[in-house]
Design a protein that fits this description.
mainly beta
């Protein structure tokens, strides 16, 4: 079995972010993991950091690499 967190071939970032969206109006999206395309692009490997206990949807959103790089370079909360 291969490593479930295979890295994107061009970056160290996942291909998708995984969110849980509760079944409520204006619900807050909680990031719960990441997903990587299979090399043949016929499926995904999904790694969850937690499993939602409430009903709702699991949503995968394509990762914006530019925004992710900016977020990584931004200093943490400076006080």
């Amino acid at each position: 079995m291969t490593d479930k967190t295979q890295k994107n071939e061009t970056t160290d970032y996942p291909d998708y972010r995984v969110y849980h969206v509760p079944e409520e109006k204006n619900a807050f999206w909680t990031r719960i993991g990441a997903a990587w395309n299979h090399k043949d692009n016929e499926g995904l490997n999904i790694e969850l950091d937690l499993i939602p206990y409430r009903t709702g949807r699991i949503v995968l959103r394509k990762l914006d690499l530019e925004k992710e790089k900016e977020r990584k370079q931004a200093p943490e909360n400076q006080e």
